[in-house]
Amino acid sequence: MRKGKDAILRLLDKGEPVPYRQMLKALNVSRHERGRLDDMLDYLVETGEIAKLPGRIYTVAGAGDTLRGKLSTHRDGYGFVMPVDGGEDLFVPARYLSEYMNGDIVEAQVVSTRRDGKREGRISALVQRGVTEIVGRFEAVGKAGRVIPDDPKLGRDLFVTPGPSGGASKAKDGQIVLAQITSYPSGARPLEGRIVEVLGEANDPEVEALTVIKKYELPHVFDEKVMAEAENQPQEVTEEARQGRVDLRDRLTVTIDGETARDFDDAVSVAREGDKIRLWVSIADVSHYVAEGSRLDTEAYLRGTSVYFPDRCIPMLPEQLSNGICSLNPQVERLTMTAEMLFDSAGARVDQKFYTSVIKSAARLTYTTVKKILVDQDAEAIEANRHLVADLKVMEELSLRLNAVRAGRGSIDFDLPEPQIILDLQGETTAIVRAERNLAHRIIEEFMLAANEAVAHFLESTPVPSLYRVHENPDPVKLQDLSEFVFGFGYTLAVLDEKVNPAALQKLLAEVAGKPEERLINEVLLRCMKQARYSAENLGHFGLAASSYTHFTSPIRRYPDLVVHRILKRVLSGKMKGVDKDRLEARLPETALHTSKRERVTMEAEREMVDLKKMQFMRDKIGEEYDGYITGVAPFGLFVELVDLFVEGMVPVATLPQDYYVHLEKSHALVGERSRAMYRIADKIRVKVAAVNEPRKQVEFALVGTLEKRPIEPIADVRNAYQRIPIKGKRPKSRRR
Known about the structure:
By secondary structure, the chain is an alpha+beta fold.
């Protein structure tokens, strides 16, 4: 038999992919020699010399799919290349990532593709380094030292050279520093750099916020020229500014926001007209004060959005604008853009118009106050706001109509609980409670959705280039997995042409409501959904079941809304000429991409800050027991969220009762081979706080017991599951104690 490395490479060098069975014949491999050939093929795939395609077809390296993407590494060393053009991530084992870091832009080669479509690859070229600076804790080592990164994904420490060039003398042991990378890892050479800034002591709330700001490179200080532009803006509406605007100052208009809100960018007003209801949604006219191409505009574009931490806001615009002349404060005149809409008794929009306006808000209401009036029937609140009660009841009626229309077309509502962090004056977490979402929230939510949708339809029908808020169909592979998963519980989900109608998902959520498996199916369904983004092309909004949708209602804190305001103004004034259209059409794709990226970075930073506060809250809870839900299942353990505190931690698989645990990926479960004990996503369990691992930003739990027993039947026979996820000659992915 000619089955050595050279023989295999010569066979593949002919340029044509070779199926395994054809290779057996070409190399004259006997039955008892196949194992040696298999081992050699696996070795060549592992080293990246050849590629394995679906159907067990082999080809030379470089002939398989190639892609460019961003590398995302796990704290355990392995990583995924996320293609810039979209599509499935490419898995890269840890042993091939020694010279690469989280965030790097790379080119990668696919070396194998499984039957389920999941791919494995090797990095073939570095395009651009993703990290140039590192925030972390400094540890002195003699006259030198090292920086332990705050981001565990980086997976390696940065070594600081002694002397002035390394800056080790700037910091004290344990302080948080910002270090600039001077040399990236290569072979035996480690990651090296120099300290450029000392942020301060590790447990200082100001330093904690600054750490996240530096880590995510969030612009947080306005320079003098930007501030000068902001300070030059008037703080009162001038007579000149009122000219040409619809005067709504005599309309009863109110803002409804949270208790701590300081920037009010939307105000609402209603009027009953027979069985119809007219709605005015007036939005702060930020574009009047922030001229396109100005320093204020450039800075707002750079930031993309405001950032909200538990103890502070990093605004997109300076406070002179965001809390001043642009904010729809009560009893003062403000310039606005108004969407005026008329809805019939069934909640359908039958008329609409848009215009620049001037309003005078009659009251600054809070969600709590509106709830007291409409839900609690609080006599004191009703008396204090007697002049507003009638209109608030009309708002309630209209919001219910609008919600019924959305539900009728299949809009998906995930009413998932969100945590609210309660801080003391020193910035320490004193409590974590469930953020309330009451009728007042839903009123404003429905009105803003209606305005956004109306503006999107108008601009699309004009037609002019615009920015859209798009939400694409769920991933086809995940949809099929979901369909198979819910079938095991007796539910059906029709997937046609790799797509699903949002109404079908809404129907599924309604069917499982109140059932033991409700949380389980909600969690799995949520994991199927793609992330909404901005686009210059209207791709529809799957989650809202809307054919056209945009963001128009928050220009104080979101740059895309400001862009949409400018486009709408040009259309209404008749200034959208051919040259403007061409220029806009050329620029919008980059604007959509940039603002989508800024939104994702902001969400990650906000989530990390909340997680940090949660972790700190658990420091003195070691040994205490809580009820929790399993929110994720992996071969190495269970992710659990505590019921009352919304804190997530992990139960390592090594701490589970002694058994051999099989990870059933599609079923989101770990199953014990001997005991058949099953731990599945959304199961309710009892855990004890075992440790708070601050360097890894992780709370560790120990299993105390299960609170709800799940039947094994919805999962296919575990023995068959072993056959579905084999690892050549080995047992399925799991851990044994």
